[in-house]
Amino acid sequence: MREVSVVRPAGRKPGVPALLCVPGTMSDPVIFDGLAEATGTDVVVAPWLEWPGPHDMASLGAEVALLAERHAPVVLLGHSTGGVIALSAALRTDRVRGVVVCDSGVNMRGHGDVDAIIDRVRAQWGPELWRAVARRSVHLPLPAEVAERLDSYPAALERDAVLVALRSQRDTDLAPRLAELGRLPALVVHGRFDRARTLAHAQELADSLPGAELVVLECGHTPPVELPDRFAAELVRFLAGLPDGG
Prior knowledge:
Residues 19-233 form the AB hydrolase-1 domain. By secondary structure, the protein is α/β, with parallel strands linked by helices.
């Protein structure tokens, strides 16, 4: 079983499923800090790029599905690439009570710079690239210590793992399968000023999930850390609306 971190809030709300959080490519799990206390539920973080691999979307979806079964009941929360992994996991297990996808999409069509990013990761791996990717991923200013962690997190990662993940995500299209999720409760959150994903990507994703609601926040690609209070409030509302005591 892959390594995860678990944060349990001091005043856990009874009956609320855990949040199984899946970060984006090269994104420090710090983006999920504070969610446990803000939502009153356990937060389980899957730092998939720190795992030994494989790092393709299908394999990662299978691993996260196993984690969902281990920590069930859960709501999957995926950011960016993590959204693709979360949806892939939801397609593999019935132990998921809902899914939240943040600044992602059903595929990477129209994601104009993915091939350029892959080329830069291959040829320019290092602090300058890490900082550029981190800064492109936010629109609003962050606390200095958080920004520093986002800038430096890729130093702990293997470049080849990042390349495998990005190439696999580029070649993955979930559109033909998302109807299989039926009326699984889903929340699609998107930052209006996202420079990586357009609002059209979010709308397409929401339209592909029969049980989905789309919420647009006034931030960039990483709402959990740019607007943490507003993002947590949307999660609390979503969790409260789940059937069967959610």
